[in-house]
Design goal:
elongated; 15 helices; about 15% strand; six-stranded parallel β-sheet; alpha/beta; about 40% helix; 17 strands; binds adenosine-5'-diphosphate; binds magnesium ion
Amino acid sequence: MSETSLRAITDLNVESELKGKRVLLRCDLNVPIKDGVIRDDGRIRASLPTIKYLLEAGAAVVIMAHLGRPKNGAAPEFSLAPVAHRLGDLLGSPVLFSTDVVGADSLAKRAALKGGEVLLLENIRFESAETSKDDAQRVELAKKLTADMDLYVSDGFGAVHRKHASVYDVATILPHAAGFLVAAEINVLKKLTVEPERPYGVVLGGSKVSDKIGVIKNLLEKVDVMAIGGGMLFTFLAAQGHEIGKSLVEVDLIPEVKKLMSDAQRLGVKLLLPTDIVVAPTFAADAIPTLVKADAIPADQMGLDIGPQSAAVFASAIEGCKTVFWNGPMGVFEFPNFANGTKVVAEALTKVSGISVVGGGDSAAAVRALGFADEQFGYISTGGGASLEYLEGKSLPGIEVLHNA
Ligand code: ADP
Ligand code: MG
């Protein structure tokens, strides 16, 4: 990909291209909300620089964003209304909100919007055309979204791997530029893929091997060290022929994992697998934890975290690297008894002298929940799937489209 040719918003002429212009902006405001309360507003904060820049330049800004995966049109639990409030608080100025995407309320509020004002549209996925596989349906929605707009700014990094109307099709209709967040994310991902500073270490965890297998494959070719934790480590242990008890496993992936292990050997990549595991009889916060050897997991127990010895080995490998990418918690960090591995790895990342990158929605939430500050890391990526697809070597439709005039 030739990211260098992306047009940045700072390349736009403020007087002629922004002041008094109508800017359609895609943001990623997909934050975790429970009982109407925002649990982590990291993605809203990450969107502020671009929004502020556009408003200060005098543009009238219409924001498109999604929340969750509503299946059947509008549903109150997927409303962006709480996000509009938080965004207003963070900006320190009012944010208008339309209760529909391209309906009467949105049309009226867009028509009245002036330079320096911002309007957030209700969850874009309330329109089924947004995610449609049918190009014509998406284009029809994109036409409505762009009808009264002058410019499209792409800043919803977490969605750029999706060929959706608000991510892809609108950019085929309007002149476009990349916002600060998209530019920053691509810049960091390039550092992880193009001539990374060595030694280069990657730590992968999380729940499923199937989510991460493409990344493991592609990064094996580039890294010096790869450490595996989280739920997916048990598929590796199973591939080595070990008893894994009731731990998470993807049996159908065992052959592929075996191949990855032999590839690592062939490529001279140091593949670190845990040697001790924290197990429990059930998947519960109050389940009694026991420490066992990785090759001796009792049949009636499940692995819920990496053990302290493994965490220490991972930590020292990480601290010795100049480039580190971490995706996926080492254990079920949501339960304090099983959060230690994730905490130790996070701590190690904060000590890296080169670049340390945390990717993945749950991983970012984990470091914040465990009390770390964003500034302790080189970069916390906002886009889980998007970063992973980039690191798999796939092309991202929402970025590719920005290269076309
Ligand atoms: P990310 O969003 O950072 O990419 P994932 O979505 O892949 O991460 O995985 C996060 C989830 O993995 C967490 O909710 C965590 O509880 C779970 N997890 C980690 N280790 C285990 C384990 N040993 N067994 C079951 N689930 C696990
Ligand atoms: Mg996740």
